[in-house]
Amino acid sequence: MLAISKLGKHFGGLSVLEDVSFDVPAGGIFGLIGPNGAGKTTVFNLITGLLKPSAGNISFEGRDLAGLAPHSVTRLGIARTFQNIRIFKEMTLLENVMIGMHQHLAYGPVALFLNSPACRAAEAEARQRALELLSWVRLDHRAEMLADNLSYGDQRKLEFARALATKPRLLLLDEPVAGMNPAEKTVLMEEIRNICQRGFGVFLIEHDMRFVMGLCDRVAVLNFGRIIAEGSPDEIRNNPDVIEAYLGREDEGQAS
Amino acid sequence: MEWLDNYWSTYNTLVYSIGVHALLALSIWLTLACGLLSLANAAFMGIGAYVSALLSLQAGWPFAAVLAAAGVVPALVALIIGIPTLRLSGVYLAMATLAFGEVVRIIVLNLEITGGPEGLNGIPQSTQGWHILAILAFTIYGLARLRRSRVGRAFESIREDDVAASLMGIDVARHKLFAFVLGATIAGVAGGLNAHFTFFISPREYGFENAVDILTMAILGGIGSLVGPMRGATILTLLPELLRFLHEFRGVFNGIVLVLVVLFLPKGLWEPRRIKALFARGGRA
User: Fold this and answer.
1) Measuring CA to CA, which residue among B251, B152, B193, B205 is closest to residue B13?
2) Could you give the ipTM of this predicted complex?
């Protein structure tokens, strides 16, 4: 579905990603893990058009994403959330989700000015749909509240709903459980499974190993800007390179 | 009813000014709604004023066509300067638009056709009260519709976080340009209306001071609603009349107002949404 090949990115002389290649299959949950500073968020920023790759290419369903502006990438069917939650705090939950529907709300300026039935119907439908999306993450009872008033975990859930409103086929989640307490983590894990079951492809970045291993169907490991392993969670768990990247090298004598 | 006639003949300019200032405050509301600090609106007003005055004086166009041109010409100028400058943000955009305003003022000051520093005299007084009222009502209705639509929501999301907005599929650059051009149109029409009741225009009226006045009106009233800019325009038009006893120090007052508002009332005089939210929070807690 999403094919990344020989992707490289350097900022000046600093090479952040080098020769990164992997495929995210359609359906299921794909995880990209790696220690802090491995370049995971840079991969997302390159996919979504916030950064331009220095080398290699990214294609989504056969379409090259090179040089596309962020809004065009979103319109092709890729949505994302941010590690440091970026919801619109001064807007209500409902408005937040309706922002995600922007591209799907088609009415012209004349219809808008005259408040035509078609325009009103489109707005009412978008409202209905936004409420439905909020109910998916169990926030519909707070639809008219300002997003700023939500707890951290709920803000993340709102971000999910808002991203889903763009009707993506692939959802990119950047460290969805960063800064969450264990209870919130469990809830979010459930939400992500639900999203996947509704037919959305999920590609997430995480450094919490336990979270990733319990959730993902397939995992790639990034370390110092390079992919060092790719496979099922079990394969990754037992891969010596991965263990070394996360835990450091074991001494010969202490090997168990 | 004689007192009413007297009253009107004394104060009609003041009432007209409130209407024109309300239009100007609404014109800057558009860019502020997108989080853009553009100070070009006084210049757009000036372009509208000069274009319309010249068309009336030299070409003898009918007033309706003159007003249309007062909107279209600034819009075209905004389109041309908006594409490169709207990439700037914050204080850099403010500087670029301020510089643009100075360029316009100096051009007008030095051209022969604009009358140079002496300005233009004898502009027909075609503007009637109902013209201003109708255009203001039309503008408010249009902006109110816009605000409640996908475009208004997009503006708000861009103001809050333009990166997140772009990743929601919103073409940020196009929305910013749209707000800038529409603001220029409204400011231009306001300039055209103004020129046709003051009889006389000069480059002095469209400089830095006026750019800041327009901004102060919108900020003082509050940009959280459309009523806000109009409230600010009314207050700041009436205040100088009430403060006549301060003579030439009246101008100081607007500056003080801007500082105080920014320091103590960043949301303007009245922010219904905040208050509503406060109640919602209290009710649910």
Assistant:
1) B193
2) 0.90
Please answer whether residues B33 and B178 qualify as being in contact, where contact means their C-beta atoms are separated by less than 8 angstroms. Answer: no
- Taking every pair of Cα atoms in chain A, the longest distance, rounded to a whole number of angstroms, is 80
Mean pLDDT on B124-140: 94
Nearest CA in chain A to B280: A145
Distances (CA, A) of A230 to A215, A227, B36, B118: 15, 8, 45, 77
Which contiguous run of DSSP H or E holds residue A158? helix A152-164
Residues of B with CB under 8 A from a CB of A: 142, 145-146, 149-151, 153-154, 156-157, 160-161, 163-172, 277, 280-281, 284
- Tell me the CATH number at B250: 1.10.3470
A 59-98 → B contacts, CB under 8 A: 69-71, 73-75, 79-80, 82, 86-91, 95, 98
Residue B279 has what pLDDT?
63
Q: How many CA atoms lie within 13 A of B159 on its CB side?
A: 21
Q: What chain B residue is nearest to A142 in terms of C-alpha separation?
A: B284
Residue B234 pLDDT greater than 90, yes or no: yes
What domain count does chain B have?
A: 1
Q: Which CATH superfamily is domain A2-77+168-254 in?
A: P-loop containing nucleotide triphosphate hydrolases (3.40.50.300)
